[in-house]
């Protein structure tokens, strides 16, 4: 299996791993050492991870945003709220293959044979098809919550082989969503979009955070429905996973306004938390009980080295790290009005509370788009996916990010050197002919994902490329311009 090399990232390795040349920002981030304004400590892992320098500040932006927490911040302010510099985001050295997955459905054998004959006749187009790829955002591009966007079904079908070559054009799904296992979400999406979706072509906001399991043993994991994030964290290899409701089950007075149902009681795992030392806080998805999550996160941030019920004399020196899986402030749903608040807004509230209680800016790490670590990880997933579908471990040169959120999908794709397509089916509400003023999509703005896919495929494979497989195609005639493909 291919492995990341440090040289691939231009970063240094985690402690314990062989190093390439250059300074080690990780080491400088340790307590007692200083590097710029960062002092966020990341304990050493066993070396199976690589750290990518953050492209945004690890310092809270609460102060800048406190004046407009209840308003819709301007694009400029939102972007300002998301930049970070000075810390590292560990990601897995190579994508881990899932134990089970929704494998790509094999086309009919007869189509396979016919398609390979057609492909033999069109070597240039085949090479171009393998040299392009898509990274799709989900919410606002492929679906709105549990409702599929119809055009997305057609786009995926075409990329899965319903095209004149009968060839799979590689694509991955790159979402800031999360809260359940990759397997569960892929199964759900496959049903919704009527296409097979493999976990090996799928990245949720918290997927790269599995690397943190090599650094932290006991973690508080927040967000998502029911207790699903517990399963996510355990799948990632965290040894001792605590859900906020476990703490409520142990002592309901911890959160005076918390929500605790009978179902919660059945599933919670209360233990004696007065003796437990937490190593880190991980927010994997949107909170379903803000009161409890705010309270317990704040308790831990203010505690003496992650021990509940304690208060540190110097909360900054003894603070345990906190990681958020993504930073989007709003996201599109099936709500008829404007986009709804999401994890980034929750984070800003935590930052504001922390600043108000301590007078100090909170250091935190935010994964997800537009963070570079997420795109770096996406490249590796894409390469692996290419190996699975085409038996070639290569990275396509022309990657098209199709997204609805200029603040995450587009700015991230632009910074990473991808082609970016902004669609009008989600967060972006610009008028026809308009691009986003602050983070314009470099390939253009499209009505929906299908239009973006068509434009990109035609740019790479030719304007006359047929977006439909013709089961009656004559491979002998194909390639000389007399194909019967519609
Ligand atoms: O919470 C925001 C998240 O749902 C956005 O997902 O697919 O648009 O990156 P996506
Ligand atoms: Mg989106």
Automatic annotation (TrEMBL):
<dbReference type="InterPro" id="IPR023214">
    <property type="entry name" value="HAD_sf"/>
</dbReference>
<dbReference type="InterPro" id="IPR006357">
    <property type="entry name" value="HAD-SF_hydro_IIA"/>
</dbReference>
<dbReference type="GO" id="GO:0005739">
    <property type="term" value="C:mitochondrion"/>
</dbReference>
<protein>
    <recommendedName>
        <fullName>TIGR01456 family HAD hydrolase</fullName>
    </recommendedName>
</protein>
<feature type="region of interest" description="Disordered">
    <location>
        <begin position="70"/>
        <end position="109"/>
    </location>
</feature>
<feature type="region of interest" description="Disordered">
    <location>
        <begin position="1"/>
        <end position="53"/>
    </location>
</feature>
<dbReference type="InterPro" id="IPR006353">
    <property type="entry name" value="HAD-SF_hydro_IIA_CECR5"/>
</dbReference>
<dbReference type="Pfam" id="PF13344">
    <property type="entry name" value="Hydrolase_6"/>
</dbReference>
<dbReference type="Pfam" id="PF13242">
    <property type="entry name" value="Hydrolase_like"/>
</dbReference>
<dbReference type="GO" id="GO:0046474">
    <property type="term" value="P:glycerophospholipid biosynthetic process"/>
</dbReference>
<dbReference type="InterPro" id="IPR036412">
    <property type="entry name" value="HAD-like_sf"/>
</dbReference>
<feature type="compositionally biased region" description="Basic residues">
    <location>
        <begin position="94"/>
        <end position="104"/>
    </location>
</feature>
<dbReference type="InterPro" id="IPR050324">
    <property type="entry name" value="CDP-alcohol_PTase-I"/>
</dbReference>
